Amino acid sequence: MISAIQEVTGQIAPPDEKATLRAVLRLNSLTKPPGSLGRLEALAVRLAGISKVEQPCYGKRTVVVMAADHGVCCEGVSAFPQEVTMQMAYNFLNGGAAVNVLARQGGADVQFVDIGIQGDISHPQLMNRKVRRGTDNMAVGPAMSREEAMQAILIGIETAREAVENGTELLITGEMGIGNTTASAAVLCALEGIPAEAAVGRGTGIGDEQLLRKISVVERAVQVNAPDPADPIDVLAKVGGLEIAGLAGLILGAASLRVPVILDGFISGAAALIAKAMAPESTAYMIASHVSGEQGHKLMLDRLGLEALLDMGLRLGEGTGGALCLHFIDAVCRIMREMATFESAGVSGAESV
Predict the structure, then answer these.
(1) Do residues 47 and 76 share a domain?
(2) Co-location of 45 and 181 in the same domain
(3) Interacting residues of 198 by C-beta distance below 8 A, sequence separation 6+
(4) Integer distance in angstroms from the first to the last C-alpha of the chain?
(5) CATH number of the domain that 46 lies in?
(6) Which position among 158, 318, 343, 351 bears the catalytic label?
(7) CA angle 115, 116, 119 (to 5 degrees)
(8) How confident is the prediction for the chain on average, in pLDDT?
(9) Are 89 and 43 part of one and the same domain?
(10) pTM for the structure as a whole
(11) Which of 69, 128, 233, 340: disulfide with 345, CB 3.0–4.6 Å?
(12) For residue 113, what is the DSSP state?
């Protein structure tokens, strides 16, 4: 399995410098003062480099929601019971979750993947890629085996490939899994050496007592398992989650295919850290949609070298922040394609503005 993963990471190329330069030149030729559209211009340049065209346009876009359960829930780290994962799965599949609403508004499809839910789901829209029925309790031992972690990564890679083969031109990371902020915090601690009190947040809205317990559980998980920060698959297997592994694979698969991937929040950030550790060049294909209300997310973005487009205190997950940022993507693409240049509009050049 590792050779299959390495084959994909070896295909990740840097952004196209010529397209990047052409995008900069076009932006500077448009009827506006140079740089006046701020970070929208930086986004336009990044998208050009990713897609190898100065005026990209993304037709079909897909939110991939990876769902899995976490054995660490038995430690009382969440405000909601584990069965909510399965109950919410049907809500996603029936189009009633927040990300379904925002995806419809942004013209995106939602693909729901069962990569590790505790129970069995039957639905015509379900992509069943279950590796196992949830992880084990990472506070007492490894969350999963190394082989299972690699299998989940490969599922994410294949999901990206299938989406692109079916016409998807832009991917958004989404997830569902009660307990996954605990696993994500543990990944941050293990990979980056961040103390648990700085990485752990309130997740689904836990109180002070539960927060202290959650911090203790993450500390114990890292101590008991001693994950190797130089080995991201070891970190995933020992303190991660199946949906985190799947999203890491999705990011790597997207990058290998030169497809931009919009990251959602804290759980997506954990997956992105794993992807970066496996293939540092993959960060060039990541677009950070927002800064989560989870305190550790800003630390993740700093280490990824990414600046989020939004900061609205979102902490729902699902891909909601990513779906909201489709409007920025569309705005940038239309500016690059539809805005007049100084020459075409008969306006004096930028030097006189």
Answers:
(1) no
(2) no
(3) 295, 296, 299
(4) 57
(5) 1.10.1610.10
(6) 318
(7) 120
(8) 96
(9) no
(10) 0.96
(11) 340
(12) E
- DSSP labels, 231-260: -HHHHHHHH--HHHHHHHHHHHHHHHTT--
Q: Taking the mean position of all CA atoms in its chain, how far away is CA 232?
A: 16
pLDDT in tens, 80-116: 999 999 999 999 999 999 999 999 999 999 999 999 9
For the segment 320-333, the average pLDDT, to the nearest whole number, is: 97
Same domain for 235 and 176?
A: yes
Strands (E), 89-185: 108-116, 127-128, 168-176
Residues 207 and 106 in one domain: yes
Give the angle 143-133-228 at the CA atoms, nearest 5°.
15
Annotation says 158 is catalytic? no
Residue 63: its pLDDT value, please?
98
The residue segments making up the domain with residue 44 are 2-56+334-352
What stretches of 67-111 show up as alpha helix (H) in DSSP? 84-93, 98-105
Name the domain count of the chain: 2
The CATH number of whichever domain residue 219 belongs to comes to: 3.40.50.10210
The residue written with tokens 């899995």 in the block is 68
Cα separation of 65 and 246, whole Å? 10
Ordered DSSP codes for 274-338: HHHHH-GGGGGGEEE-B--SSHHHHHHHHHHT---SB-S-----TTHHHHHTHHHHHHHHHHHHH
Asked if residue 193 and residue 51 are part of one domain, the reply reads no
Identify the helix (H) or strand (E) that includes residue 65: strand 60-68
